[in-house]
Design brief:
- This protein is an alpha+beta fold.
- Helix content is 35%, strand content 25%.
- It is built from 22 helices and 34 strands.
- The strands form nine sheets. An eight-stranded mixed sheet has the order 18-21-22-29-26-25-23-24, sandwiched between helices. A five-stranded mixed sheet has the order 2-1-5-3-4. Strands 8, 9, 10, 14 and 15 form a five-stranded antiparallel sheet that branches.
- The chain is globular and about 85 Å long.
- The two termini are 54 Å apart.
- 37% of the residues are buried.
- The chain binds one RNA strand through β14, β15, α9, α20 and β32.
Length: 704
Amino acid sequence: MKITLPDGSEKSFDTQVSAAAVAADIGAGLAKAAIGAKVDGELYDLNRPLPGDCSLAIITRPREDKKGKSKWPNGKPDADALYLLRHSCAHVMAEAICKLWPDTKLAYGPPLDNGFYYDISLDTPISSDDFEKIEAEMKKIVQEDRPFTRYDLDPDTGFPKLEKEGNKYKIDNAKRAFEQGASDLSWYVTGPIESIKSNGLDPLAKPPKVSHFEDLCQGPHAPNTGTIGAFKVMSIASSNWHGDVTSDRFQRVYGTAFFTQADLDEHLENLEQARQRDHRVIGPRLGLYTIDEQVGQGLVLWKPNGAVVRQELQNFIAEHLTRQGYKQVFTPHIGKLGLYKTSGHYPYYQESQYPALVSREQVQSLADEGCSCAQLSSQMEAGEIDGYLLKPMNCPHHIRIFASDKHSYRDLPIRLAEFGTVYRWEQSGELNGMMRVRGMTQDDAHLFCTEDQVADELQGCLELVKIVFNTLGMNDYRVRVGLRDPDSDKYVGEPEQWDKAESACITAAKSLGVPFSSEAGEGAFYGPKIDFVVKDVIGREWQLGTVQVDYQLPIRFDLSYTGADNQPHRPVMIHRAPFGSMERFIGVLIEHFNGAFPLWLSPQQMRVLPISDKFTDYAQEVTDKLKAAGFRVEVDANNERLNAKIKLAQEAKVPYMLVVGGKDKDAGTVSVRHRSEGDRGAVPVEAFIEAAMKERDGRELMES
RNA sequence: GCCAGCAUAGCUCAGUGGUAGAGCAGUUCUUUCGUAAAGAACAGGUCGCGAGUUCAAAUCUCGCUGCUGGCUCCA
């Protein structure tokens, strides 16, 4: 067989060899460090025979630096090496759990970007108190440094073995593997293959009792349990078979693994730091928002400081909307049920809406008729009762504004914008600080245009996103273009329209100059869309904005404009909320800036700190001048030492601290301290104001 | 909604069945201070809510509410 190595060189072998043999042939050092292989782009066990002529890259364990941290060849962790390690650790954890709770049924245990999990089913639920016990068992297995040994069985032998073991999840996994083109079933034994061979390799034989663990698994794995340098059982959650809530429920046990203890420690330290950066920690601490049990779950109360950030951001966005020819509208928070029946949102999304508000007269007449709660509920379900809905989206209201006038093709596009507040009944377990709420204000707009205008309008939407993201220094976002699934018939509209709209979306996405993915089947049923996705501090992805092309609602509401031919034509709608909601966007922003907003967004932009109360008069004089220049500024006249005032201002992330004492009073200066640069020395008041105004009005980013 | 965990002063937390604790914040007084916490005194709690067990419950049991992690969902 002919093996091509990553550097392009080739090696030939007379017999079928494994990656281990190739590594040994290259050098003893490599052989020692090798833990797996990548064969034609596919991960392989180190000792698994190579399939034939192929390209081969040896995956090695990292070296260690002086502090015991992994030292990776190209500076960043090798995802493949960690994959092998974590996948293997999932098996070790599964073995430990099976030993502690013999009735455990294993379902599925894959590696993740930052660890692994195993879905298990057992009678006695595991709790976090059990983690230590599990880790102790895992430690033993790792210390025994047992090999991971793969063996394959053909389906005729493999399926009876699985049937005998009686784990329906593994049988299901095996079936799926075959559907995906597997030719054999593979098991991984955490131990020498002799533990099987001693039974004459009879897969139906009872497995030996000593240190034997095997798991149906496609692999691959690290060569030995000892490869796992450090691990930790992290958390436990509930999950369902194939993510189907109506199907069997599992306990999902999360863990993580690293090559060294120092790596694990660093990871845990990073997690702790991320927690400190969480908007749910910083937000309340900085007085930005609160959520109150008496008001309701998922209902954000914007406190004065948060309101400033939001207002500034809205002003900024509104400024650009005006520039782009948007017209501002305002619409009420409720609308009649019929509106949402026309739009199709009710009753299809009934479960994610607040229940309808039914008129007093109607409730009374129903009561007079002796209507029971059950009847009321079923009439509501059937849509026989009229009422009002807290609006779950703004589009129907905007559509009715469009429909209130007759439009010529010359008027198009019409762009209606509103910071519109909508309400959605999200499941309680999904609520999350400002990121996932039940009442939110979208930076919403609806564009009504001709089909030919769609491409330009999409460009315009993305232009706005680009401006705002650049101004805020947010470069770390992902763009997802959702297209139709060619094999599905759930989509409405003509294929030609779709082709045009899809290519317009892709062209628009390209113009952003950031990575984007086109995902078939991710489009809305009424049209393709462009979504913006960012990660929070703990790595969770949140969709911010979306831009959607819609052919459906104009039909449902029978919208039209008069064309050059004097005939009615159907407009195309574009829904766009490029930042999603103010709640989520500012939640993301809090974490992005770690609470230290740029000057223009800071709730308090400056704080004047007199060094003693002898200088409060001068401090007030300075403050008045700053206020006259439009700054949000306060004097800290408390009876405290300067150091204490500075500490408080730093903690409040106030951009500028202006220290004033005798020297400043005499010279007409302020001693400027920048929250991240520290002491900048004395500056004449007017000069400081001028520079700060430039920084504020230019919406400059303070920290690079 | 589901599984596990958590809930003690405004905040961070200690308190394993026997008189509710600390630090910070707050109030008052002293101090008048030049770049990340001056000192002292005072005040502050129905231990999330409701039942139960017990001579006795912050502590044990059950239910509820809220929060955290994950699952599912996100028009």
